[in-house]
Design brief:
heterodimer; A: alpha+beta; eleven-stranded mixed sheet; four-stranded antiparallel sheet; 17 helices; B: mainly alpha; 0% strand
């Protein structure tokens, strides 16, 4: 029997056809590719940067968003009346040209820029800004207190002038005006009385959102109507990862250019040793502290609180638990912020067991009659290092030989509820600032009534007076003096003990530049750029395969369609 | 009316009390757990006024039994309610954002587990008692005890970080996402003839599907093996051999076909298990599906979303098991309802 087979000629023809298709596919693909940004003689820059994060976006609506990562995204697509200068963190006009402060700080007159446009090209005026601020107040979302607690009324003077009257003079109001809650949004895109969680209309910032699938992907592209300098990189892709390990592997596998918020201390240490990445480190404005409920005995005794503050070994916590990715903190006002003083270090030292023992003896305790306390922590909200932090605090206190610590934990929402009810003796908490001013690190903790969220653990009329004065005082040097007095009183009364201040870490590929990390803790995407070599310009295999598949299927389909038409 | 139709209707009706009991249990458990959802939402900085206003908005100021009646009456109207956190989006919209991701992963895992299970099960079942059989039986036990995050991370490291063959996380490259039709990226890419998207979606699917499928393939190995051994010892196989049919024809045309019937039921049950296993796989591979979503919402005490998701899951699993039963009846002519 004669065996049937493919003839030689047919095989050659088929091979030629396949080769032609591959060449045509590659040609078609290259013709579709955007040209990298380059100057005739200068380096070549990538048109896209990929950022990986373990954070998530809550609501793409300034009236509702109240978390750092969403604020970061909003800060790249929008802008408020004031912005922070990168690195120096000095406040400078954002969407305003100038401003006036009247009636001893009670009235702010904002003169808006005349070239403000939203991403859809519609103009942004004083009327729009008023509408946006009133909208925040109307919706009463989580960050609405930025408006409701301070603003009495808003009034449009003319197309580009807005008058904001405050309930009371507030010296740090420009810092409040820098938060995303005060970003203008377009009335054409946002409803006035309802949160719009997946709104991609954006604002007046350097970027606009072009693709958004919740928890999966976010793509930003340069806003053609932005009044300022265009972003260094026209397109930013954000990828979301579940864990720090996944984020690190995504960086190592080349899926992302930047790993940002949050890599674990061990991952940071491991990446530091690898030559192909740059590890950026900067002090953050995030602080951790211990809260003593002074209403619960034996913590109603200041000697006990002082003894525990003296025995605390911050250096050990920072080194053992955080591998040096945090720094000890000796005041509620973070290191690097004006008015900060290392008051707890000056007064009690660090891990000062002798002083602790002395104070405990004065309070009537001994090795036979031990002080018994309960230390509470929440296991997940502050990361998986929290149990270790609690264990080291217990170890430090018990090293006095005169303290017995029972460590207990509760899941976040339960922890908050019990704390608010005032039923927990000692708790561990952390604080991300709302605005960069010492007021935000002192008033909510130490002023009577403002610390209801901590179960009203402390109240003192003298402290209230100092904090109230500092809020309305317009002279910066006088405010500084007042805040130093507040910190001294804090260390004397010890209702709260600072433990450490976080550091910011970002790991990027070596060819990524323009990264600015500062205490604002929001990454400015518009400053980042990536140099690409010619090697990176080689076509990825995926794209070639896809193009060939496309040709193999689309060419016959279009031929058939043409035949049908004819 | 045929008996099969009666069976289907009865099964469907029985699903209703099952879901009702499940829903009531979840409703009670969520409220017994300490922790206020409003506090979890607004965090520690919220004022008491804001907390009170939110509790009112969410209906949490009402007695629990009023909340229960409200919820059931809304459910009967097909309304799963609104999420309690962030944008307070409709629960069904939240589910629809994530469910396709889980279905895609589950199908991927299902295919891998069935293929691996069939291959290893057949290899073991053809010559029972030998070394190969022992190896396959050990395989079935070992893979079943594998911890998904660990095996997932090993695969990520080898195929993602070292070989750079497959992505370590996510569902697709954001720059090639296909037009949304079903939410299943592979299917959407095929329907829209978007080949870059198809390749990207398949590449993202490989590692999580393999991890999930590998762990669950052991069950099939054992099932296929025992079922095949039983079928191969039956009279009709001996009759086939006496007629001179080759071993290959006997195995693939006669024995395996019969051996697969009881496995069909297991496939239905396994599908539910796959959904559960997807939680760990989703976390390991940053897969934005229902598992990670449900865990997050439980932590936030988002009552309505948790209740809605569980009702949705229950209906889905009940439907799958009903479909499997019906298919079973068609495949095996001995089964009559």
């Amino acid at each position: 029997m004669r065996r049937r087979g493919v003839s030689k000629t047919a095989a050659i023809v088929a091979a030629i056809v396949v080769i032609i298709i591959i060449i045509a596919g590659v040609w078609y693909y290259t013709s579709q590719q955007p040209t990298p940004i380059s100057s005739p003689t200068g380096p070549v820059y990538a048109d896209t940067i990929v950022i990986g994060t373990t954070d998530r976006v809550s609501d793409l609506d300034p009236a509702s968003a109240y978390d750092f990562f969403t604020w970061e995204v909003l800060s790249n697509i929008g802008m408020g009346p004031f912005v922070y200068e990168p690195k120096t963190l000095e406040l400078k006009p954002g969407i305003i040209e100038s401003y006036e402060v009247k009636e001893n700080g009670k009235v702010y007159i904002l003169h808006l820029r005349k070239d403000l446009k939203f991403a859809d090209g519609s103009p942004c005026t004083a009327e729009t800004l008023k509408w946006s601020i009133d909208r925040v107040a109307k919706i009463e979302g989580d960050p609405s207190w930025f408006v409701l607690d301070f603003v009495e009324s808003t009034e449009v003077i003319d197309d580009y002038t807005l008058k904001i009257t405050l309930q009371n003079p507030i010296s740090f109001f420009p810092a409040i005006l820098a938060v995303p809650t005060y970003f203008p949004v377009s009335p054409n895109a946002y409803p006035f009385d309802e949160i719009s969680p997946d709104n991609t209309a954006g604002s007046v910032g350097p970027y606009m959102i072009t693709k958004w699938v919740r928890d999966q992907q976010l793509v930003l592209e340069a806003n053609p109507h932005f009044f300022g300098e265009p972003p260094k990189t026209p397109k930013v892709v954000i990828k979301f990862y579940s864990t720090s390990t996944a984020l690190r592997m995504a960086l190592e596998s080349g899926e992302i250019d930047i790993a940002w918020r949050t890599l674990s201390p061990t991952d940071i240490e491991a990446l530091k040793g690898k030559g192909e990445f740059t590890v950026y480190e900067a002090p953050s404005s995030y602080i951790r502290y211990i809260v003593f409920n002074t209403n619960i005995p034996p913590l109603d005794n200041p000697l006990v609180r002082k003894a525990l503050a003296a025995a605390l070994n911050r250096q050990e916590i920072v080194e053992k638990v955080f591998l040096g990715t945090a720094e000890p903190l000796y005041s509620l006002v973070p290191n690097g912020m004006w008015s900060h003083i290392d008051i707890f270090k000056d007064k009690y030292g660090d891990g000062n067991l002798e002083l602790a023992k002395q104070l405990l003896k004065q309070a009537g305790y001994s090795e036979e009659n031990k002080l018994k306390v309960e230390l509470w922590y929440t296991p997940e909200h502050y990361g998986d290092t929290e149990a270790d932090v609690a264990a080291l605090i217990k170890e430090a206190w018990e090293a006095t030989g005169m303290v017995e610590v029972t460590v207990k934990s509760a899941e976040w929402s339960t922890y908050l509820q019990y704390t608010r009810e005032g039923s927990l003796m000692i708790t561990l908490y952390g604080w991300y600032p709302d605005y960069l001013d010492p007021d935000d690190y002192l008033y909510p903790f130490l002023h009577t009534g403002s610390n209801r969220w901590l179960g009203n653990p402390y109240s003192d009329p003298e402290m209230d007076e100092l904090l109230d004065q500092a809020q309305v005082e317009m002279d910066q040097s006088k405010r500084e003096t007042l805040y130093k007095q507040v910190q001294e009183k804090l260390a004397e009364d010890v209702p709260i003990v600072p433990i450490f201040q976080g550091k910011l870490y970002l790991v990027a590929k070596k060819n990524v530049h323009g990264i600015v990390l500062d205490q604002l803790m929001l990454l400015r995407y518009y400053l980042i750029y990536k140099e690409v070599s010619t090697a990176e310009a080689i076509l990825p295999l995926d794209s070639i395969v896809a193009t060939v598949m496309n040709m193999l299927i689309m060419v016959p389909v279009s031929v058939i369609e043409r035949i049908k038409v004819n | 009316m045929t008996s099969l139709r009666v069976y289907i209707i009865t099964r469907a009706l029985l699903t209703i009390p099952m879901i009702f009991i499940l829903l009531t249990l979840v409703f009670v458990i969520m409220r017994i757990l300490p922790g206020n959802p409003v506090l979890a939402i607004v965090g520690m900085k919220a004022t008491p006024e804001l907390i009170e206003s939110l509790e009112k908005q969410l209906g949490l100021d009402k007695p629990w039994w009023v909340q229960y009646i409200d919820y059931i009456s809304n459910l009967l109207r097909g309304d799963l309610g609104r999420s309690m956190i962030w944008g307070r989006r409709p629960v069904i919209a939240e589910i629809m954002d994530r469910f396709p991701a889980t279905v895609e992963l589950t199908i991927g895992g299902f295919i891998v587990s069935v293929i691996l299970g069939l291959v290893t099960g057949v290899i073991a079942g053809v010559k029972p008692g030998g070394k190969i059989d022992a190896t396959m039986r050990i395989y079935s036990i070992v893979v079943y005890t594998l911890f998904i995050p660990l095996i997932g991370m090993i695969l990520q490291y080898i195929f993602g970080v070292q070989l750079k063959l497959f992505p370590v996380g996510g569902r697709i490259d954001p720059l090639v996402t296909p037009e949304h039709i079903t939410g299943l990226y592979v299917l959407d890419a095929i329907l829209t003839l978007n080949f870059p998207a198809l390749i990207s979606a398949l590449k993202h699917l490989v590692l999580p599907s393999f991890t999930l499928g590998l762990v669950l393939s052991g069950v099939y190995t054992r099932l296929v093996r025992s079922s095949l051994i039983e079928v191969l010892s039956q009279d009709f196989i001996r009759a086939c051999r006496s007629r001179g049919l080759s071993e290959r024809v006997i195995l693939y045309k006669h024995a395996l076909k019969n051996a697969l019937v009881p496995i069909l039921t297991m496939m239905g049950l396994q599908f539910a298990l796959l959904l559960a296993g997807a939680v760990l796989t989703e976390t390991t591979f940053s897969w934005p599906g229902m598992g990670t979503f449900l865990m997050e919402r439980i932590a936030y005490r988002d009552f309505t979303t948790v209740q809605g998701t569980i009702v949705f899951y229950a209906v889905f699993v009940a439907l799958i098991s009903l479909v499997v039963d019906v298919v079973y009846a068609y495949v095996d002519p001995r089964i009559r309802y």
